[in-house]
Design goal:
Elements: E1 3-5, H1 15-21, E2 30-32, H2 40-47, H3 51-63, H4 69-81, E3 91-93, E4 98-102, H5 112-130, E5 134-139, H6 143-152, E6 158-165, H7 171-178, E7 185-191, H8 194-205, H9 208-214, E8 216-218, H10 224-241, E9 248-253, H11 258-268, E10 273-280, H12 285-292, E11 294-295, H13 316-323, H14 328-341, E12 344-345, H15 348-355, E13 358-362, H16 365-379, H17 385-399, E14 407-411, H18 419-426, E15 447-450, H19 453-464
Parallel strand pairs: 4-14, 5-6, 5-8, 6-7, 7-15, 9-10, 9-14, 10-13
Antiparallel strand pairs: 1-2, 3-4, 11-12
Helix pairs in contact: 2-10, 3-4, 3-10, 4-5, 5-6, 5-10, 6-7, 10-11, 16-17, 16-18
The structure holds pyridoxal-5'-phosphate (PLP) and the ligand N[C@@H](CCOP(=O)(O)O)C(=O)O.
Pyridoxal-5'-phosphate binds near residues 110, 307 and 386.
């Protein structure tokens, strides 16, 4: 197994190369050169195993020789042993054919923990063996940052710098990041949007000298290892509910297109997935792209589901690469034109290829809050606004005939991360788990910066010099 850049101008690397690089040197995203395969029988057998064992089995298809099987299993046991649910990713039935996959029982209460906890352990092992250090840069709209900091704060060979859009994450999300005061952690509040943060991250990777000076790495979903780890719960969820080889739908609240692309990867690996539902909030660029080919950013609108307040979705590049039959030149031209024109019209053939696997739905603010309230009335349980976007989309896509049969909606965050929206919708205050009961008493540390590449470079150089 090796990894190729979508843009075709970087050398292929092994799993460890993709893990440590994050983004390919040509600005492209790494992809496996071919999809590893699992038969439905293999997938079903995963359902019999504890989550950590299933994760090691699936991940080994991506890691190849980079990590031996017993080390990988020790890593997954350690990573998922810290989750606060026995099942790690519990599946809850909410209707005849409807399920919610709870992905918020990790240490920072969002689905990001599934990949980040394992990445931290992989970084530790690879950097120790190479006797190297890394400076991780992450852009966050709230959840990736907390998960990265939690997973990496104890890594002696990793520094971690997190950029978040000032005032555009919830107080709980911010405090989960800024209350971790450690010598290798820096939080930077950017005067701008998540897209500005993400653009800065990509521009840092484009500066070869800076990348080499500080040994830059990334843990956003540009990093293939993130998506590899996120494929696992599609397999375990399918195995828990499918009869025989029955195909199941997944609906995924979507921002950077990473989580839903992990579902696509699982499908390409042989998992019987019928349709992948892309659930967008009022920042509906992905819905516009899939429904009518219009992939044009329209300015970010703050919503009750702030982690999905994203316009330029990194992983859409991976989807276009697939839809273009992995034609590097065609993909590079598309991405260059997109950068120049600040938007794109997806051609009919490419759109038809995308629609073989995906449908989409945009959910308004009113619909999001209404779904939190409806769900609480129907089940007595609170859901977070991102999950509500997913559930609202799943209900509408089924009513409109786009989804038939069993459907799993990914529940991506704990409701207590977004108490204001939950309270507004239901009148109820979701409680943080005990291990965060003192979150609002903890001191915070962060610096503020303008949305400028140079400002961030100088903060990183001052903090960590050459790694
Ligand atoms: C809670 C939550 N739900 C959904 C998403 C969207 O996931 P993705 O960016 O992988 O599409 C995010 C952020 O990415 C998130 O933090
Ligand atoms: N919603 C994310 C945005 C970054 O997404 P990633 O999956 O590419 O890391 C966040 O919460 O930070």
């Amino acid at each position: 197994m090796h990894y190729i850049s979508t843009r075709g101008r970087s050398a292929a690397v092994d799993f460890e190369g993709a893990l440590l690089a994050g983004l390919a040197p040509d600005g492209g995203l790494y992809m496996p050169n071919a999809w590893p395969q699992l038969s439905p029988a293999d997938a079903r057998a995963l359902g019999e195993k504890p989550y950590a064992e299933a994760a090691a089995s699936v991940l080994s298809l991506f890691t190849g020789d980079a990590i031996d099987q017993s080390t990988l299993l020790a890593m997954t046991k350690d990573a998922y042993g810290g989750f606060h649910a026995d099942d790690v990713a519990p599946l809850v039935q909410v209707g005849d054919d409807d399920y919610i996959l709870e992905l918020f029982h990790g240490p920072t209460l969002a689905f990001k923990d599934f990949a980040m906890q394992i990445l931290g352990r992989m970084f530790d092992a690879a950097l120790a063996r190479r006797d190297e250090h890394l400076t991780i840069i992450a852009a966050t709209s709230g959840d990736t940052g907390a998960a990265a900091i939690d997973a990496l704060k104890a890594c002696s060979r990793v520094n971690v710098v997190v950029l978040h859009p000032e005032g555009r994450v919830s107080d709980v999300q911010r405090r989960m990041m800024t209350s971790v005061i450690a010598p290798n952690v820096r939080n930077i509040a950017i005067d701008g949007s998540f897209d500005d943060c993400q653009a800065i991250v990509k521009s840092l990777f484009a500066d070869e000298k800076f990348v080499n000076d500080v040994k830059l790495g990334g843990v956003n979903s540009i990093n293939w290892a993130r998506l590899a780890a996120q494929t696992v719960y599609y397999f375990t969820a399918w195995a828990a509910i499918a009869d025989g080889d029955e195909a199941v739908n997944f609906v995924v609240p979507t921002g950077n297109f990473g989580d839903v692309f992990a579902g696509y990867a699982a499908k390409r690996m042989g998992l019987p997935v019928a349709t992948l539902g892309v659930a967008a909030n009022a920042n509906d660029i992905l819905h516009r792209a899939i429904s009518n080919g219009d992939y044009t950013p329209a300015g970010v609108r703050p919503t009750a589901s702030p982690s999905m307040d994203i316009q330029v979705a990194s992983n859409f590049e991976r989807l276009l690469f697939e839809a273009k039959n992995r034609d590097h030149d065609a993909l590079r031209e598309i991405m260059e034109n997109f950068a120049r024109d600040k938007g794109m019209k997806i051609d009919d053939q490419t759109l038809a290829a995308i629609r073989k696997d995906f449908v989409s739905c945009a959910v308004s603010e009113a619909q999001t809050l209404a779904e939190i309230a409806r769900h609480e009335k129907a089940t007595g349980a609170l859901i977070d606004p991102h999950t509500a976007v997913g559930r609202s989309a799943a209900i509408r896509l089924r009513e409109d005939g786009h989804l038939k049969g069993k459907t799993v909606t990914l529940s991506t965050a704990h409701p207590a991360k977004f108490p204001d929206a939950v309270k507004e919708a239901t009148g109820k205050n979701p409680d943080l788990p005990d291990f965060f009961s003192d979150l609002f008493d903890r001191p915070e540390e962060m610096v503020k910066a303008t949305a400028s590449e140079d400002a961030i470079k100088s903060i990183i150089r001052d903090a960590f010099g050459t790694a």
